[in-house]
């Protein structure tokens, strides 16, 4: 019963983002099951493309499930996790994701802790495949 209560508090802290990084980290320490974070991906520069990324800790890896809408069927758009925020993104990707396309794509980040992503400044972005410097969607991981 105690374990369950801690788990619920931890999940609420992670999902709500109400606690600070230290709070999230200590909540992580209490969680032995898979943990999860959801990132809203917003359209940039009027692209009309938006979506949701769900990041889940599976053992030593983080699985990123990216669901986008507004990408034309059959088009593959580069997607990455970059250091920084959507407002001030480091242009060098930290982790490549499977190219975004209409619907859901999955990427496994091997040896990555969800706590690292949540505790640092990272953002998920999607690029125009014809002009990589042009970003079409972005969401801050927090
Ligand atoms: Cu990128």
Account of the 3D structure:
With 142 residues, the chain is an alpha+beta fold. It folds into two domains: 1-33; 34-141, Superoxide dismutase, copper/zinc binding domain (Immunoglobulin-like, Sandwich), CATH 2.60.40. It has three helices and eight strands, in the order ααββββββαββ. An eight-stranded antiparallel β-sheet has the order 5-4-7-8-1-2-3-6. α1 runs antiparallel to α2 (21-30). The longest helix has 15 residues, at 2-16. The structure holds copper (II) ion (CU). The site of copper (II) ion (CU) has 5 residues, from β4 and β7.
Architecture blueprint of SSEs:
Blueprint: H1 2-16, H2 21-30, E1 36-43, E2 50-58, E3 61-69, E4 77-83, E5 95-100, E6 103-109, H3 114-119, E7 122-128, E8 131-141
Antiparallel strand pairs: 1-2, 1-8, 2-3, 3-6, 4-5, 4-7, 7-8
Helix pairs in contact: 1-2
Bound molecules: copper (II) ion.
Copper (II) ion (CU) binds near residues 80, 82 and 127.
Summarize the structure.
The chain has 142 residues and is α+β, with helices and mostly antiparallel strands. The chain has helices at residues 2-16, 21-30, 114-119; strands at residues 36-43, 50-58, 61-69, 77-83, 95-100, 103-109, 122-128, 131-141. It binds copper (II) ion.
- Would you identify the CATH architecture of the largest domain? Sandwich
Low-pLDDT regions:
1-28, 30-34
Q: Provide the CATH top-level class of the largest domain.
A: Mainly Beta
Helicity, as a percent range: 10-25%
Percentage of β-strand residues:
over 45%
Question: What would you report as the Rg, rounded to the nearest angstrom?
Answer: 15 Å
> What is the CATH superfamily classification of the largest domain?
Superoxide dismutase, copper/zinc binding domain
Main sheet record: 8 strands, antiparallel
**Tally of separate helices:** 3
- Given the helix and strand composition, which structural class is it? alpha+beta
Cα shape: globular
| Strand segment tally | 8
N to C succession of SSEs = HHEEEEEEHEE
Strand order of the largest sheet: 5-4-7-8-1-2-3-6
How many domains is the backbone divided into? 2
Return the average pLDDT rounded to an integer. Answer: 84
And the CATH topology of the largest domain?
Answer: Immunoglobulin-like
Question: Ligands in the structure?
Answer: copper (II) ion
């Amino acid at each position: 019963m105690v374990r369950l209560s801690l788990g619920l508090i931890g999940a609420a802290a992670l999902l709500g983002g109400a606690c600070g990084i230290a709070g999230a980290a200590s909540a992580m320490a209490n969680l032995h099951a898979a943990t999860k974070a959801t990132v809203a991906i917003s359209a940039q520069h009027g692209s009309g493309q938006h979506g949701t990324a769900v990041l889940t800790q599976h053992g030593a890896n983080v699985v990123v499930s990216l669901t986008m809408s507004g990408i034309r069927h059959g088009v593959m758009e580069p997607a990455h996790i970059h250091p920084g925020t959507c407002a001030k993104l480091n242009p060098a990707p930290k982790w490549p994701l499977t190219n975004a396309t209409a619907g859901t794509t999955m990427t496994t980040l091997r040896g990555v802790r969800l706590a690292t992503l949540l505790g640092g400044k990272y953002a998920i972005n999607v690029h125009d495949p014809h002009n990589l410097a042009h970003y079409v969607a972005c969401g801050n991981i927090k």
